[in-house]
């Protein structure tokens, strides 16, 4: 951390000052120095407060797997037993055994926090009791199924939000998730498996973790477990083998899981290991239009880039006169709002400006936000056409080139 030397002018009234002018006319007067000092002290205080809040939060360990059945829940329960033997107050907040006998057997001897019971559509259902966890304040709580959607009427819509509440209360959490539930990988998972995964977690939740562990099996080992009935009931095995659990699907999912964990390990190295050389900090700017599908692709792919480089990123939408509220269709306005929400969940800062020139606004944001990489969609996108016909495209390229800013066209 680099500390700037404070201005050393003291602040006190000078009754016999030789200067007949008010202090505000002097850029280096005691008064202006005091203002600078106050600003620096405020910044320092805010930084220290952020450190205090961070230190009060619980630690978050996350197990990631390429699919169901690799052994994430089993490993969490093994770790719980190990912590218990070492005198750590560990409790089970929520575990889903999926009727797997080996997993269920590991629950024996572990203290379990009773689940919250709710009635929904005439059925009694169970959820993680977040308030009970916070009231009991164990040192460590195990919470399975991080991507789970809570029953209507729960405080939070998603279980990952419950986990964040528990961490904010200063309780350490161990949880698990499959790679297909990570938001920015959703389209890639669909391309691999043909399945749309509806329960997803923002990438920022994974980034929030203090430790990420990959639970890995070879494709042959996983398929063998499936055939032995260790993952699904007998009646589901044949369908699983012809769909999700095909060898080529498993290999691609395994690659994604390994890459994700490697990326998180790299983030920890960059943030926690002191290096002598100065590293260039990447900043990404995703430029979107009102086209729902193309904008979503640009957002998700830029999110992956930002996640890989552990960088700050922004989403820019320039509202031209042709897309004023009274001219743009209501469904496009709704899609824009949904894309803003998606980008925010993935960790982006949203920038929305009104202008006749998209290229000029891109240049403005590049300079203001110190952007290193601009991401836009394929040339067929409306955004690209607008940039080109404004006559500003060459100006944009020259400006980006002169500032050593990369332009990435995302397919």
Class of secondary structure makeup? alpha/beta
- Count the beta strands: 12
Distance between the termini: 39 Å
CATH topology of the largest domain: Rossmann fold
- Summarize the amount of helix as a percent range: 40-55%
- DSSP helix count? 15
Arithmetic mean of pLDDT: 83
Outline the biggest β-sheet.
Answer: 5 strands, parallel
Uncertain runs are: 1-36
The CATH C-level name of the largest domain is: Alpha Beta
Strand content: 15-25%
Overall outline: globular
- The CATH superfamily of the largest domain is P-loop containing nucleotide triphosphate hydrolases
CATH architecture of the largest domain: 3-Layer(aba) Sandwich
Rg (C-alpha, Å)? 26 Å
Index terms:
411 residues; alpha/beta; Rossmann fold; 2 domains; five-stranded parallel beta sheet
Summarize this, please?
With 411 residues, this protein is of the alpha/beta class. The chain has helices at 30-56, 72-85, 101-105, 130-136, 159-168, 186-193, 203-207, 219-227, 234-242, 247-272, 292-309, 330-345, 358-369, 382-389, 393-402, and strands at 60-65, 90-94, 116-120, 123-127, 140-143, 172-178, 211-215, 283-288, 312-319, 349-354, 373-377, 406-410.
Structure notes:
The chain is of the alpha/beta class and 411 residues long. The chain has two domains: 56-272, Rossmann fold (3-Layer(aba) Sandwich); 283-410, 3-Layer(aba) Sandwich (Rossmann fold). It has 15 helices and twelve strands. It has helices spanning 30-56, 72-85, 101-105, 130-136, 159-168, 186-193, 203-207, 219-227, 234-242, 247-272, 292-309, 330-345, 358-369, 382-389, 393-402; strands at residues 60-65, 90-94, 116-120, 123-127, 140-143, 172-178, 211-215, 283-288, 312-319, 349-354, 373-377, 406-410. A five-stranded parallel sheet has the order 2-5-6-1-7, sandwiched between helices. Strand 9 (312-319), helix 12 and strand 10 form a beta-alpha-beta unit. The longest helix is centred in the first third of the chain and has 27 residues, at 30-56.
